[in-house]
Write a structure and sequence with these properties.
With about 170 residues, the chain is mainly α. The chain has one domain. Helices cover about 70% and strands about 0% of the residues. It is built from seven helices and no strands. Helix 1 (about 1-40) runs antiparallel to helix 3 and helix 6 runs antiparallel to helix 7. The longest helix is centred in the N-terminal third of the chain and has 40 residues, at about 1-40. The chain is elongated, with a radius of gyration of 20 Å.
């Protein structure tokens, strides 16, 4: 029983928790970088790019549930594989999933993606004409960037999951 707890649950807890930590930094940096970049674009005028209600719901409703589900229920292999293959435990000894390189890679991915997303939205949507003849506006840009960020960070969890369920 102790062997099962240490070798199966311990290894998977390490893997899931390190992903959870990296993901939390990633999703919040990705969320804030468009705001910061828009500050430079608007000469720090204090104009909000996101809707206030959406801004408050981001961490709790839009991105909280998928990572909690992942951190609790995702298994890379079944328990028999963990008990029969000791080489699978090297990830904890070698700090494969959480080290400086991993942290900075996640950080730079978030900065790059957030910057690219903001400027693509401003380049494409601001010049687009809507059905009523008006041009794109800041509200439209901000809502598009927000929706794209929510989709991107949730797909990131989906891609890195080993188990796919109805949830």
């Amino acid at each position: 029983m102790l062997k099962n707890l240490l070798f199966c649950h311990g290894r998977e807890a390490y893997r899931r928790n390190t992903y959870l930590i990296s993901y939390m930094f990633y999703k919040n940096v990705l969320y804030v970088i468009p705001i910061w970049m828009f500050g430079w674009y608007s000469f720090f005028s204090g104009t909000a790019i996101y809707n206030d209600i959406l801004y408050q719901c981001y961490n709790i409703f839009f991105t909280g549930a998928p990572i909690v589900w992942f951190a609790v229920f995702d298994w890379e292999h079944d328990k028999e594989t963990f008990l029969n293959d000791p080489s699978l435990y090297r990830i904890g000894l070698d700090d494969i999933f959480f080290n400086k390189t991993v942290f900075w890679r996640w950080f730079f991915y978030a900065v790059w993606q957030g910057t690219l997303l903001l400027f693509l939205a401003f380049i494409t949507i601001d010049g687009a004409e809507q059905l009523n003849g008006q041009l794109g506006c800041l509200t439209l840009d901000g809502n598009f960037v927000f929706a794209a960020i929510v989709i991107i960070v949730n797909i990131k969890v989906l891609i890195n999951s080993y188990q796919y369920t109805a949830w």
